[in-house]
# Entry
Amino acid sequence: MIDLGNRQILSDGTVLLSTAGAIEALYADAGLDQCVIEDSDDVALYKHSMRLLDMDLGQLYTTVDDLPARDWYAEWATPAPWSAISVLDYCVDRCTTDDQIIRVCEEYKLFDERNMIPVLRHLIWMVDHMRSRGIVWGVGRGSSVSSYVLYLIGINRIDPLKFDLDVGEFLK
# Structure
């Protein structure tokens, strides 16, 4: 949690505001969507006032549990045409053996189960963007090097098939 005086940012990105912080955000036209206010009486008064004035300045919540489920991965600002690219086709097209295709399909399923395909699209765009501008990035580190999909995208330069690395070490 990051404490910024009248507001705190929780580890999941949720903003927790004091009443003074909410008023400050309204005056700054910062918006209040996905914010939690500490005082439930103030939230009830705010909601009542918005209904009376027929206004919507953002939805407030009194607890983190009241927040609607949010698909954080879908909010990546990936430009077209990368935002619609088929990650599976992109990776399979770079395979030269059946073992590689099987590994890509296995990993793709794991990424898909975690709703991470938009992140992979964004990573494809980032690598293409860096390559086109001559930007150099690292060879990869940690458990991410056990992902063959990330290797094919160019995030790391360590072939996990060559070293018999299990993708389970990355996608636990």
Remarks:
- The first helix runs from residue 19 to 27.
